[in-house]
Design brief:
Layout (H helix, E strand, L loop, with lengths): L1 H14 L4 E8 L10 E3 L2 E5 H8 L3 H12 L4 H9 L5 H13 L4 E7 L4 H20 L4 H4 L3 E2 L7 E7 L5 E7 L10 H27 L6 H18 L3 H16 L5 H12 L13 H17 L11 H28 L8 H13 L3
C-alpha cells in the first residue's frame, strides 16, 4: 500500500512540475547590429524573428504573428479582430505571443526541469538575469546598463507628477533607451570576439543550474553566481550608496573572505596582480581598491558609521565597478577550467578549494 501511495504521489507531483522552456523578453542589441543568436551556457539568446520562427509552431498562429510583425496589419487592428465575437482561437494565441514580446527585440530561453510553474518562471528570470550580467562584463558600465530583461522596465521609464502650492499640476517623465546600438554591424563582430569568454562563463552558469535542480551547487560555483548577482544589482542601482554596498558584498562573496578584508585583498591580488608588480603612479592599487570599496565603503555604510543617502560616492562606485568587473573577468575562466579539468576541487572543503583557486590565479603566465 505504501508503495502504491508513493507511486501515485510522485505521478501527481510530476504533473505539476513539468519540464518547460521558459522565455524572458530582453533588450540587448539594436536590430541594425545584426547580432546572431548565441548561448551563455543554458540560456539561449535569440533575436525576435528567430525566436518566433523557432517557437511559434502552429502555422496559422505563425501566419497571424508574421502579418503584424511585417506591418501588413497593425497591432491595434489585429487586437480588435482577436477580441471580436466568434473569432478563431488562433487569433487569440497570436495576440498572446505579440503581447508577450511587446517592444522587446530579443528573447532568452532557459529549460527548467521538474519545477512547479511559478517557481520555474522565478528561477528562469534569475538565471537569465545572471546570463545578461555575464554579457555586461564585456562592456563598459553605461553600455552594460542598457542590456536588460522584462521585469526591469522601471529602470528606463518613469512618469512623474508634482503640484505647486497653488495646486497647479506639473507633469514630467524620464526615459532611457534600452538595448545597445553602435555603428551598424559593429556589435556582431564584438560578440563573435567575446564568444570564448561567454562559453567559459556559460559552463559555470550551467553547473550552477545543474546543482540548483536538486539542491545547492558546489561552493565556488554558488559564490560566483551570488557575487555576479550582487554585481549586476550594483550596476543597475540608482543610488551610489546601495551600489557601493552591493559591490562590497560581491567582493566578499567572490573571494570567500568571510568579511576579512585582508583575505579579500590577497584574493584580488592573486587575480589582478599575480606577479606582485608595482602599481603605476596615479593608478589605484588593488589593496586600496578593496579597502575603499569594502572597508571604507560597504562596512561603514552598512553599519551606519558613514552617511550614505545623497552623499557623493561616485568615485567609490567607479572603483567598485572596475574592481568587480576585473575580478569576474579573471576568475570566471579559472572556475570554468576547474569544472572541466579538476572537478575534484569542487568536492573538497571550501577553504581548501579557495586555496587551490588562488594558486591557479597566481600561477598564470
Amino acid at each position: 500500500m505504501a508503495g502504491d501511495y508513493e507511486y501515485y504521489l510522485e505521478a501527481g507531483s510530476a504533473k505539476i512540475r513539468p519540464d518547460l522552456d521558459r522565455h524572458i523578453p530582453c533588450h540587448l542589441f539594436d536590430a541594425n547590429q545584426a547580432v546572431p543568436a548565441f548561448d551563455v551556457g543554458p540560456v539561449a539568446f535569440r533575436p525576435r524573428g528567430d525566436w518566433i520562427a523557432r517557437y511559434v509552431l502552429d502555422p496559422t498562429v505563425l501566419g497571424h504573428v508574421q502579418q503584424v510583425e511585417s506591418g501588413a496589419v497593425s497591432l491595434e487592428t489585429f487586437r480588435n479582430q482577436a477580441f471580436a465575437a466568434g473569432s478563431a482561437p488562433e487569433l487569440t494565441q497570436a495576440l498572446e505571443v505579440l503581447t508577450f514580446l511587446g517592444g522587446y527585440g530579443w528573447v532568452a530561453t532557459l529549460r527548467t526541469v521538474g519545477h512547479e510553474l511559478t517557481r520555474s518562471h522565478e528561477k528562469a528570470s534569475v538565471i537569465v538575469g545572471l546570463a545578461i550580467d555575464v554579457i555586461g562584463l564585456r562592456f563598459h558600465l553605461e553600455n552594460a546598463r542598457l542590456l536588460t530583461k522584462a521585469g526591469r522596465q522601471h529602470l528606463f521609464h518613469e512618469s512623474r507628477l508634482a503640484t505647486t502650492v497653488a495646486g497647479q499640476l506639473l507633469k514630467g517623465s524620464s526615459s532611457q533607451r534600452a538595448g545597445l546600438g553602435a555603428a551598424p554591424g559593429a556589435l556582431a563582430a564584438k560578440m563573435r570576439a567575446e564568444q570564448s569568454f561567454l562559453d567559459q562563463a556559460g559552463k559555470v552558469l550551467q553547473a550552477y543550474v545543474d546543482g540548483r535542480n536538486t539542491g545547492k551547487a558546489p561552493h565556488l560555483i554558488e559564490r560566483w553566481a551570488n557575487a555576479l548577482y550582487w554585481f549586476g544589482e550594483a550596476r543597475r542601482e540608482s543610488s551610489d550608496f546601495m551600489a557601493v554596498v552591493n559591490y562590497g558584498c560581491a567582493a566578499d562573496g567572490l573571494s570567500g573572505a568571510g568579511g576579512k578584508a585582508e583575505k579579500m585583498i590577497d584574493f584580488a591580488d592573486a587575480a589582478l596582480n599575480p606577479k606582485s608588480e608595482p602599481t603605476p603612479a596615479g593608478v589605484v592599487s588593488v589593496k586600496d581598491s578593496v579597502s575603499q570599496v569594502y572597508r571604507e565603503g560597504r562596512n561603514k555604510l552598512a553599519h551606519g558609521e558613514e552617511s550614505g543617502l545623497f552623499e557623493d560616492l561616485t568615485r567609490t562606485r567607479a572603483i567598485g565597478d572596475n574592481l568587480l568587473t576585473s575580478l569576474l573577468n579573471e576568475v570566471t575562466p579559472e572556475i570554468a577550467e576547474i569544472i572541466a579539468n579538476r572537478p575534484q576541487v569542487l568536492t573538497v572543503p571550501e577553504e581548501h578549494a579557495y586555496r587551490a583557486l588562488v594558486v591557479r590565479l597566481q600561477s598564470r603566465a
